[in-house]
Amino acid sequence: MEELQSAVNAHFDQMADLVEKLSAEFRSGMKPAYENFMGFFHAIDWKEPWLIGLLSFHAILLVVVFTSRKNINFQMFLFLLALGGVYLAERLNHFLASNWKSFAGQNYFDANGLFLSVLWSGPLLVIAIIILVNTLFSLCHLIVKWKRAELKHRARTARSKED
């Protein structure tokens, strides 16, 4: 029995070493990504009025999405609006890159559109996903309601045939 216990303990020690090595490698692999993100975050002047307006727009849109969660037609309009904003992001990036001096302190709009993808398209896609999940839940609820009504109808039909 002692041999079995020592074998199990050796196995647990080996697994603990493996997990420790894996987590250390994962942390070291994530360090450059974290440093790039922090560099991106610190390179932005978050006190610029247009950035505050952009973040406020996304916050207001998110509140509107949550408050209108029962109105599926309006949600579909917001869904298409959000996806339309993502679709037009490249054109918007080119327009803003050529006119950045009129509203921004520095040129955030590179040719690849990273800034606009992170601060414009990213939140719009998150909002679109929230709308999509809400729509799926609403459809599931509707299917359950429909099936209950169908079963009640079948039960009523069966009762009327017995009489």
Automatic annotation (TrEMBL):
Database matches in InterPro entries: TMEM18 (IPR026721)
Matches recorded under Pfam families: TMEM18
GO MF annotation terms: DNA binding
GO cellular component labels: nuclear membrane
Topological category with respect to the lipid bilayer: Multi-pass membrane protein
Annotated TM spans: 50-67, 72-89, 124-144
Location in or out of the cell: Endomembrane system; Nucleus membrane
Main location: membrane
UniProtKB keywords: Coiled coil, DNA-binding, Membrane, Nucleus, Transmembrane, Transmembrane helix
Family, per entry: Belongs to the TMEM18 family.
Name recorded for this polypeptide: Transmembrane protein 18
